[in-house]
Design a protein that fits this description.
CATH superfamily: NAD(P)-binding Rossmann-like Domain
Structural class: alpha/beta
Radius of gyration: 19 Å
Bound molecules: NADP nicotinamide-adenine-dinucleotide phosphate
Largest sheet: 7 strands, parallel
Helix content: 40-55%
Number of strands: 12
Distance between the termini: 34 Å
Strand order of the largest sheet: 3-2-1-4-5-6-10
Number of helices: 12
Shape: globular
Number of domains: 1
Order of helices and strands: EHEHEHEHEHEEHEEHEEHEHHHH
């Protein structure tokens, strides 16, 4: 049984890939966790994901219904919380008709959460931002991106990345103007991979499923950094606890720049026969751009062609002693859990 005097952490969006891993670590470390869901009907699914992650004692976990687009329940969600980890935000899992469908809930949601946290006397909010708020929309950037960089929202960038940049800027502005004593830190992950604990997995793992399932021979020429979800969860907790994290942004990255072909090679190495059909060559960029005109799901991919998205993880390593595992381990873990999802439960 958890001790009812232990610190209480509000984690927003408990149904999400990253949030579940954060909740797992918090429960393992004895914290009480309250998490928000858009619909309470998903409670059992979240509990199931936590059990598959190895946590069976769930007495310390409670749920509350809240949507980023509505004021309802945010005050109650934050009441009595010592810390808030704000993870929920619209992600490219769905196709949105207008960019405001992503930007408004992201920006207004972060403000709702911060206001509720401040009014409830929460010590610190950790916001899950993204590399998308750091390194997109720049044509001539030199060297790896660091926490000093901000994405250029005047450039033609994907609405998801715009939403993350606008929401994070709004958060810092809120703290500066009306945060009172509330503290803020952000974690800005690159592409997050790692063990998937349920059938609802994030957009970042979707490309692996596509490689494993679709028999496609080619991949787009995109180079990106990756990080394991378990390390992302650790970094959130370090950012929540460590005094030196207050007021800081932290890139969560293993700082290895990999192409999609590199990912395919890692899948072949770790999954053997299960990955025999993964792509072995790259599409010319003009073909991807042409397909993206008619297929909105490819627009984000097209916007990343030819971009150098390498990152530095020195700040989190040096300031917080964070030590992420290699990207290969994260990608292999995504691949293995994706194969289990594709094959389904054995009867
Ligand atoms: P995910 O599995 O799609 O999780 C997104 C979460 O946000 C879900 O719980 C979702 O709830 C919730 N959400 C979306 N719109 C909402 C709304 N209007 N009101 C309340 N909740 C809402 O994706 P994820 O990868 O775990 O992403 C979590 C966070 O990490 C996001 O802030 C994302 O931007 C950030 N991030 C992810 C990556 C990555 O590579 N995966 C990289 C950088 C940053 P439902 O389940 O009800 O839809």
């Amino acid at each position: 049984m958890p001790d009812n005097n232990n610190p209480l952490v509000l984690v927003t969006g408990g149904s999400g890939f990253i949030a579940v891993h954060i909740i797992l670590k918090l429960l393992e470390q004895g914290y009480l966790v309250r998490t928000t869901l858009r619909t309470m009907s998903r409670q059992d699914e979240v509990k199931g994901m936590l059990r598959s992650g190895g946590v069976h004692q769930l007495e310390g976990l409670s749920f509350i219904e809240a949507d980023l687009s509505s004021d309802t329940n945010w005050e109650a969600a934050a009441e009595g919380a010592d810390y808030v980890i704000h993870v929920a935000s619209p992600t490219p899992n769905k196709v949105y008709k207008h960019e405001d469908e992503m930007i408004r809930p992201a920006r207004e949601g972060v403000l709702r959460v911060l206001r509720a946290a401040r009014d409830a006397g929460v010590k610190r909010v950790v916001l899950t931002s993204a590399f998308g708020a750091i390194g997109v929309g720049h044509k001539h950037h030199k060297g790896p991106y660091t926490e000093k960089d901000w994405s250029n929202t005047d450039a033609d960038i994907h609405p998801y990345q715009k939403s993350k940049t606008i929401a994070e800027k709004a958060a810092w502005e809120f703290i500066r103007r009306e945060g009172n004593r509330l503290e803020l830190a952000t974690v800005n992950p690159v592409g997050v991979m790692g063990p998937i604990l349920g059938n609802d997995y994030s957009h970042s793992n979707g490309s692996v499923r596509q490689m494993l399932e679709s028999n496609q021979k080619y991949v787009p020429k995109i180079y990106s950094d990756y990080v394991d979800v378990r390390d992302v969860a650790d970094l959130h907790i370090l950012a929540m606890l460590r005094p030196e994290a207050n007021g800081e942004r932290f890139i969560a990255s293993s700082a290895e720049n990999l192409s999609m072909l590199d990912i395919a090679a890692i899948l072949r190495k770790h999954l053997g026969e299960d990955a025999k059909n993964v792509p072995k060559a790259e599409f010319p960029n003009f073909i991807v751009r042409a397909i993206a005109v008619v297929n909105p799901k490819l627009r984000m991919v097209a916007s990343l062609l030819g971009q150098d998205m390498s990152t530095s993880n020195q700040k989190a390593r040096q300031l917080l002693g964070w030590t992420p595992r290699p990207a290969e381990e994260a990608i292999a873990a995504t691949g293995k859990s994706m194969i289990d999802i594709i094959k389904g439960p054995s009867v």
